């Protein structure tokens, strides 16, 4: 039975404050919930329509509190405009300690990414290109924001995301590790010397890289626009699109 207290609790998880208090988040839709069920995340509770419940063959569901809910009831708790059969309440994992001494691959570092859609797409991009984890500044949008979770399309179940003070983080990386940053005055990424390991620093959607982080940058890179006397181009690329282009080029250079 879906009680008023459950509805109130789920709706509270749509805000960052109560996600932090309860250390839980919500995820919606068959694809995302299925991927979370088959990951290291702990699913605490599921609210789903009868047809979704009847379609499930996963024995692990026996250990989860599954509550049947009507389409109308799902609309009352969903963060989506069009609810999609199932909503899960998931425990937020303890990820306070960032992996140390692990610089053998690319590390994606995000500086003040604010848009939930951008963040979710960046997480999905990092998953696609096999980047093991993401480091976010403390003032990035919350990875467990329902809009971010939805935009990851399930990649949140595989990616490890950490939040920290980026100045202190970059201050403590080994001197031989390069920090590649996307900047308008950077060198053309298709001609720049890249590395198969190092840090890729992506800046805020409108302001770019924070001034206090610029001293840590070893290599400025940019994605040049196609210019023509007949056409004007956009001032810059969307942060998630830029991330995809940059990650693709790094991986292309060192494909085995």
Overview of the structural elements:
- This protein has 256 residues and is of the alpha/beta class.
- It has two domains: 4-91, 60s Ribosomal Protein L30, Chain: A, CATH 3.30.1330; 106-253, 3-Layer(aba) Sandwich (Alpha/beta knot), CATH 3.40.1280.10.
- 30% of the residues lie in helices and 21% in strands.
- It has nine helices and ten strands.
- The protein has a six-stranded parallel β-sheet.
- Helix 6 (116-128) runs parallel beside helix 9 (239-253).
- It is elongated and about 60 Å long.
- The model has no long low-confidence stretch (mean pLDDT 92).
Q: Would you summarize the structure shown here?
A:
With 256 residues, this protein is an alpha/beta fold. Helices cover 30% and strands 21% of the residues.
Q: What labels would you give this structure?
A:
256 residues, alpha/beta, 60s Ribosomal Protein L30, Chain: A, Alpha/beta knot, 2 domains, six-stranded parallel sheet, four-stranded mixed sheet, 9 helices, 21% strand
């Amino acid at each position: 039975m879906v009680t008023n207290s459950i509805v109130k609790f789920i709706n509270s998880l749509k805000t960052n404050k109560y996600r932090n208090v309860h250390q839980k988040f919500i995820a919606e839709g068959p694809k995302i919930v299925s991927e979370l069920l088959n990951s290291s995340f702990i699913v605490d509770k599921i609210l789903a329509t009868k047809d979704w419940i009847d379609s499930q063959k996963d024995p692990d569901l026996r250990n989860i509190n599954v509550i049947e809910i009507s389409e109308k009831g799902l609309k009352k708790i969903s963060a989506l405009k069009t609810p999609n059969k199932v909503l899960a309440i998931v425990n937020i994992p303890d990820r306070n300690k960032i992996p140390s001494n692990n610089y053998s691959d690319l590390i994606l570092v995000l500086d003040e990414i604010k848009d939930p859609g951008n963040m979710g797409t960046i997480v999905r991009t990092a998953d696609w290109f096999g980047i093991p984890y993401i480091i976010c500044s403390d003032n990035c949008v919350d990875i467990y924001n329902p809009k971010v979770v939805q935009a990851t399309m399930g990649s949140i179940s595989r990616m490890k995301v950490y939040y920290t003070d980026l100045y202190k983080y970059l201050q403590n990386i080994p001197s031989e590790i390069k920090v590649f940053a996307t900047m308008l005055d950077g060198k053309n990424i298709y001609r720049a010397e890249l590395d198969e390991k190092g840090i890729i620093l992506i800046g805020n959607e409108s302001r770019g890289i924070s001034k206090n982080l610029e001293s840590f940058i070893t290599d400025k890179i940019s994605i040049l626009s196609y210019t023509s006397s007949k056409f004007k181009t956009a001032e810059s690329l969307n942060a998630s699109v830029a991330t995809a282009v940059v990650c693709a080029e790094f991986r292309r250079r060192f494909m085995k």
